[in-house]
Design goal:
Elements (H helix, E strand, L loop, with lengths): L26 H18 L24 E8 L9 E7 L2 E4 L10 H14 L2 E3 L2 E4 L2 H4 L2 E8 L7 E7 L7 H18 L2
Antiparallel strand pairs: 1-2, 1-6, 2-3, 4-5, 6-7
C-alpha cells in the first residue's frame, strides 16, 4: 500500500528546490540584492562603475512566469509501488525534493498549464470503479518530463517524456505505446 500526504495546494506551499528565493519571499528585494551583488563582483574585476547598469525586477509579476524550459524528475512516494501517484520533483544536492504541487510557478503560463494536465493524466484511473492507472505504459520507468515553450502566451508547449529504460521491447508493445500516447495527448488536449 501507499500513503500520500495531500497538501492543500497554494502558491506558497509549492517549493522551488535549489532557488534562493521562495514564493513567500520578497522577490523584488531578492532581485535587487542579487543584481547589486553581481554589480559589486564586476567592480572587483576592474569594470568601471559608470559602465555598470543594473535593472532589477520592479514587480512580483516580473519574477515569475519566465522559465521557458524546465525538466522535472517524476517520483512517487514509494518507488517500489506501481500503484502510487506520480509527482514532480527537482534535485538539490543530489536529493529529489517534491515540488508539492502540480505546476512550477516561475515557468511560463503555458508550461504551468501543461504540467497540470500531464500529472493529472499520468495519475488518471481507468474509471471510478477501476483503480488501475489509465496510462500504464507511459508511466512505466518514466524518470522525468521536460517542458519547453515560447514566452508568448497561447503558443505551443512541448512535453518530452524521458525514460530509464527503452520504452518498447517489440512491435506489439510499440503499437500499444503509440496508441496510449495518442490517447494521452487527446485527453490532455495537447
Amino acid at each position: 500500500s501507499c500513503v500520500l500526504i495531500h497538501h492543500t495546494m497554494t502558491e506558497s506551499s509549492i517549493l522551488l528546490p535549489g532557488y534562493e528565493c521562495q514564493l513567500e519571499d520578497d522577490s523584488v528585494l531578492h532581485s535587487k540584492e542579487k543584481v547589486q551583488s553581481a554589480a559589486e563582483d564586476l567592480l572587483t574585476i576592474g569594470i568601471p562603475k559608470d559602465n555598470i547598469h543594473t535593472l532589477p525586477c520592479l514587480s512580483h509579476k516580473e519574477t515569475i512566469d519566465y522559465r521557458c524550459s524546465c525538466t522535472f524528475q517524476i517520483v512517487s512516494e514509494d518507488p517500489n509501488n506501481d500503484e502510487c501517484e506520480l509527482q514532480y520533483a527537482m534535485r538539490s544536492a543530489k536529493t529529489a525534493i517534491l515540488l508539492r504541487g502540480d505546476h512550477f510557478p516561475i515557468a511560463t503560463p503555458r508550461i504551468q498549464h501543461v504540467m497540470k494536465l500531464v500529472v493529472r493524466e499520468l495519475n488518471a484511473r481507468v474509471s471510478e470503479n477501476d483503480s488501475a492507472f489509465k496510462y500504464t505504459l507511459l508511466r512505466t520507468d518514466l524518470s522525468s518530463v521536460s517542458f519547453a515553450s515560447s514566452w508568448q502566451h497561447g503558443l505551443d508547449c512541448i512535453a518530452t517524456f524521458n525514460y530509464c529504460t527503452p520504452i518498447h521491447v517489440n512491435n506489439e508493445t510499440k503499437q500499444q505505446l503509440l496508441a496510449e500516447a495518442n490517447n494521452f495527448c487527446s485527453d490532455c488536449n495537447i
